Amino acid sequence: MEADITLRVNRETRWLTVDTRTTLLDALRDRLGVTGPKKGCDHGQCGACTILLGGRRVNSCLALAVQHDGGEITTVEGLADGPDLHPLQRSFVRHDGFQCGYCTPGQLCSAVGMLAEARAGWPSAVTADQEGPVGPGPVALSEAEIKERMSGNLCRCGAYAAIVPAIAEVAR
Amino acid sequence: MTQTRARLTARAMGTPLDRLDGTAKVTGTARYAYEQPFAEPAHLHPVQATVAAGRVTGIDTAAAEAVPGVLAVLTHRNAPRLAGTGDAELAILQDDRVAFRGQLVGGVVATTTETARYAAGLVRLTYDEQPHDVELRADRDDLYAPESVNGGYATDTAQGDVEAALAAAPVTVDRTYTTAMCHNNPMEPHTTVAVWADGALTLYDSTQGVYAVRAAVAPLFGLDAEQVRVVSPHVGGGFGSKGTAHAHVVLASMAALVLPGRAVKLALTRQQLFFLAGYRTPTVQHIRLGADLDGRLDAISVDAVSQTSRIKEFAEQTAVAARMMYAAPNRRTTHRLARLDVPVPSWMRAPGECPGMFAAEVAMDELADACGLDPVELRVRNEPAADPETGRPFSSRNLVACLREGARRIGWERRHPAPRSRREDGALVGLGVAASVYPVFWMPGSSARIRAGADGRYTVSIGAADLGTGTWTALTQIAADALDVSVERVDLRIGDTAFPRATVAGGSSGMTCWGSAVVHAAEELRDRYGHEPPEGAEATGDTGENPDTERYAMYAFGAQFAEVRVDADTGEVRVPRLVGVFAAGRIINPKTARSQLRGGMTMGLSMALHEHSYMDAQLGQVANHDLAEYHIAAHADIGSLDVSWIDEDDPHVNPMGSKGIGEIGIVGTAAAIANAAHNATGVRVRDLPITLDAFLA
Fold it and tell me: How far apart, in whole angstroms, are the C-alpha atoms of residue B650 and residue B655?
């Protein structure tokens, strides 16, 4: 069964017809040629497919495209402002926060979403363990906070020890 | 043959240049194998065997073929016949036999991924199922000695009289250690896009070696090498599992042959990788050490058992590091294999050294305990003056310097020699050490071409690979120094059989082999055309020969230290600090090198605490075959990771003076963590992974 849907992808309106079984990830990669989001597991276990949907990070492999007709999507391709890289993108390059680069689009989109969550005062599993008063208001992002909040994004090259300082630098 | 005339002067080398492919990777514009743009590609979904041993007796493809959008259903009844079937892993769909559960027995090609996957589920196979045998045990009566082990090493070695020395030794360690089956799990699942057009096969493949894939595929289809082009510009990790062609490449090629002119895309699922992409065999290692009261080794004995598949042999070289690591006049090593109804094991980051040095370095910790010696001091006392196996001098060996520097960095002097002496915030805290080693491999067979362009620019072409290893950047730095120009004037092109032949990115040998070829090509270009070559001037060079490989034992060394905290109530193990100090020759790019070593140590921590592919003996398959159940280290698992190296000047290894760094980082990490856990708790863990139940007895 097919359905006609509209997606706003990186500030551009795209019309497409999708199989109702098609995930948002496959719609982006196979149908729209937006190949920044990666398929690492297709089961929401690795985070490589993370995109921003309505400004919030989601695993696009766990979302059906047909459910998000009219959705506002930002992928890694949409983070930069023209030729000017997003501060997180620059920081990842400077800290060498990746090797093979396959998890990187997901790490970056996840970090963008995570920073917004912390600014909005969302607690994480380690927030109560941190020094200082807890909420309301923005959560200070210690290393432990960043690690906890980014643990849905696996990196097999083992760049974690560079990704965390890359994010921390931008979070400051 | 080429020999290097002079060592390369470092200008670009040694600078922490940002990764040249960095911008492409952070903006999502780096294209991996699957992402090559094709109009209306077809999609291929595999059909896998659902028994672990037996024969396919019935095939019903009618329901699959009836699905709109299905273009072809391949089984052994209709698949193209292969010309060469010497490699049984690759000789798929040629007969009705099943050698392991999950083996490829078919494939469905359709216009969309959803259709291909759905229809693959409609293919009905019936089997004559035979009993299977998938359990590795060291007491099996059918273990056999392979002719040689991976890397071409001798299966067994013996020097002196080990039994007599052990009987006479005042201090002995006699223990058995095991390591778990592990799966490489690169973030990018193995992918092949195949196109058959105009009598030529083009493969966009996620591989560590485009030439290795071509060499495997061309003869299978009776094609000349020139009829097969393999392209692989960006690779999403491999860790050995993309070092050789696996069966899915053949399935994709078959589908392309059936659908001429149309690109066929095959991306294995994460689950399928656990059957089809190689893995690290489990090992059982019986280690015996004999020493005097001062800890000086008199005897070393290692008996290593691992598994291989029914259809293709892979013999992990588990015991080879024990042959050269420490001095001892009496030594013996053996390797034995169990041939089982399991998928084909293969390379995973530092095959041999990684599992072997876990066992050996925990055994050394046990010996230090038995002698009442500091574990660092024990290793220093057993430093050999020359390679104990061959008698050759080491081209450079700075293990002791690494141990001393690492001890300083972790604060070793604060370690309590007695286990269970330090308790902080409800956790038992300990420190541990282990040594690392990895050989410097020199493999012939790479060549590079350099072409002078306009405005003093140079294009360097070589069929090498960057799977995150930093090749794009480091090889450009080598080329810049070899040409005596700035990095900005070098355009490197890799990952394509359209470029000159290159060896596989394996054995941490890439920079040695490809770098030497680039240096020799630059020498040739300068000899012929001087420093201002005309536009279009070209020269090639190859890896050549290095007579010093016959005169010296060449290895990189390292020392790893771990601080481990074990929760006194729950047994949960955390590793707040890892320190790694390495001696690996000249470091070509400190930034990407740090990532390589850190990545190795991170995977080592993952191996120590998490990774375990559980073989379900009844079903004959790995039960936890996805990333929800097969755990790899995540952000929250990694504490402080301190990576450094000592300046090492080795004039013998290659023109750059560099040693490989892709694998040594994982060698020893798990032992350092196990040893630290013992120091923390008094519990000696000899079986990986280290899980909390070990501390709750």
Answer: 10
